[in-house]
Amino acid sequence: MSAAHTNALPPTPDDCAIWDIWLSQFRLPIVNVNAQVGTFAALAEAPRTCEDLAAHLGVDARALAMHLAALCAMGLAEKRLGMWRATHLARRWLHPDGEGYWGYFCRQIDRNTHLQGQLLESLKTGRRPGEAAQSDGEFVARPAEWERGTMSAEAARGIAAFMHAHSQAPALGAATQPVFSTLKCLMDVGCGSGVYGIEIARANPTLKVVLMDLAEMAAEAQSYVERAGMGAQVTTAGVNMFTQEWPREADGHFFSNVFHDWSDETCRLLARKSFEALPSGGRIFLNEILMDDEGTGPFPAAAFSLLMLIGTLGKQYSLAEFRDILESAGFTQVTAERTGGGYFSLVSAVKP
Ligand SMILES: C[S@@+](CC[C@H](N)C(=O)[O-])C[C@H]1O[C@@H](n2cnc3c(N)ncnc32)[C@H](O)[C@@H]1O
After folding, report:
1. Which pLDDT does position 131 carry in this prediction?
2. Per the database record, which ranges form the O-methyltransferase C-terminal domain (predicted)?
């Protein structure tokens, strides 16, 4: 298709259908892994908290919480007053003693044994599948690159292309948010290809944008800036957000899909670093697919969270969890809105 033809297409920021397609690969393996560890049988016997259920099954409670959210979103578990139980569907069709137990069928029809194995291991251990799995799964190997604080130019190119695809629509959605017009300079921290900073700059011609990432990724983002013809407004900075001083000129810090890569403790550290570097009145933004407050879904957030479990040190957070993290650093006025960019929401808070 020619560029002219592509540009003539309506500029929709909605790519939810594509997300539904790729996240659907998690559905059957989640059911099979939970049948295997005994989740349905245990939740058919008695309602239990996530922690009690984890102890009963001998699995990791944090990982189990992510599975329960996905099972709830699929109609197989429900949460009432903090207690989880199997729904009538799961009691009838997924209890191993039930007449017409679907477990045998689902197990045999599931061809995605790779994902099944990764989900099972991480559910049992609470950690990413081991080194052997990391070498043969593309998206598993990639985050390990940035955790070392450095990467090859080739790895940066691959990660940027991967991220660019899944971030183009949500970047268009984020860019329409009026709050960015109130800022002078926005720093896109952990920018990847820079797609968010580029689109937000395009929508706000007086806004200066700094794309910040590890040196190799910042160099890669520079090529996206040049291709977009946005060099007059958008610059890049190679900075390790954990070990180096942050540039100080920005009155807004934007993180997309960055907090979800890290533990609660590391997110608190990032929030503190942002707070220190912002002026009074400055804003922090977290662009993420949010879990609901109860940890009961929705499915895209729960499945994406499981991808984080097997590939990173993080998970998808709820607004309640982000509020706690941001307030612990000193931020106030924590709010969130769906941007219209796919499933993403923009969390925003202010440094008093
Ligand atoms: C999941 S990607 C998100 C990219 C982009 N924000 C997006 O949503 O498309 C996480 C980004 O964080 C960056 N990152 C990881 N560790 C970093 C560090 N120590 N300093 C700066 N950036 C880092 C990675 O290089 C990567 O580009």
Report:
1. 41
2. 146-331
